[in-house]
Amino acid sequence: MDARLNYFADPTADKVLKHFMSAGKALKASPLPTATQELVALRVSQINGCAVCIDMHTKEAAAAGETSVRLHLVAAWREATVFTEAERAALELAEEGTRVADAAGGVSDEVWANAAKHYDQEQLAALVILVSFMNTANRLNIINQQPAGNYQPGQFH
Fold first, then answer.
1. What are the boundaries of each domain within the chain?
2. CB of 1 within 8 A of CB of 147?
């Protein structure tokens, strides 16, 4: 299977995506814990059905030391006992932020308050931007039918 477009061969897409990738690098450098970043990126990608992002973030998380048990349980995090309360708060915010149409009100005050108990303002800002960033990345890849399975950890760093 081939992607519909080669974004980097198109002058406009190439310019935009270079800026987009720079935003991703800035997020990686944020004070939001790496494990939380990868878990959130994975969960958003699972919800949206973005195979290439699921491939990328499972491999990046594993390369950063994440366990296979936790990676396998991200889809069922509510029932799993392997996530910290802070990670659970981030995953819940990510889900509500991704399912804005389904949530009919976006992120609830209760979910926001729970996340704010675990993360400072800079981390919360990074979390919100990460959820938005991943939703954008997922849509770029899904619309383009970007194939999955060949990602190598660190490929875009």
1. 32-143
2. yes
